[in-house]
Write a structure and sequence with these properties.
Layout: E1 5-8, H1 11-20, E2 25-28, E3 43-48, H2 52-55, H3 60-67, E4 68-79, H4 84-94, H5 108-117, E5 121-128, H6 142-152, E6 163-169
């Protein structure tokens, strides 16, 4: 019963998406867009995973509220620039050892405040990727690092975590207008 709208800035990526999910509506968007290509209050689930230019944008919380239907859910990730991993990443960039522009947006604490100020309620938040393995890593130490993260309870420290996944919900009713 789900109707998917999938967006990307890369036509080739969307072509793969369309091939795999023929019933999806695949829309090419531009890097400078500040609106999702959907109607107001028309989205039950908005998923923004590892799309930092979107989740880090100042317009994002307001736009998420616009597109989510009452009771709709947002799942998003954010690279947290106040983490130790982000500081290490910036040091590598200064030394010319990294060129990507990770950890450039707001802190997770500021992001969470912006979500709340826009009217969303935080349902869950979890810190991830505390140890310095890249996405491409296939190190045999990764399971041990994951175990250590769980043992130390690091996932419960999202404001210090390198990567945070957050689930937020739009209220069922608009408390401001007094709808019931």
């Amino acid at each position: 019963g789900w109707r998917l709208t999938c967006t990307d800035v890369d036509r080739a990526v969307l072509a793969v998406c369309q091939e795999r999910i023929p019933e999806a509506r695949c829309v090419v968007v531009h890097r400078d867009d500040t609106r999702f290509p959907v109607d107001d209050a028309s989205v039950r689930l908005l998923v923004i995973i590892e799309v930092e230019p979107v989740s880090e944008a100042a317009w994002f919380p307001r736009e998420a509220v616009r597109v989510l239907e009452p009771g709709g859910v947002l799942i998003a990730t954010l690279g947290n620039p106040v983490s130790a991993r982000a500081a290490f990443h910036r040091m590598l960039c200064r030394r010319g050892l990294r060129k990507d522009k990770a950890y450039m947006g707001p802190s997770y604490a500021a992001f969470r405040r912006a979500l709340r100020a826009s009217g969303l309620h935080i349902a869950a938040e979890r810190g991830l990727t505390w140890f310095p393995f890249t996405r491409q890593s296939n190190s045999r130490l990764i399971p041990a690092a994951e175990f250590l993260e769980r043992l130390l309870g690091l996932s419960r420290l999202p404001t210090l975590s390198p990567l945070v996944i957050v689930t937020a919900r739009k209220p069922e009713h608009n408390a401001v207008s007094g709808d019931s």
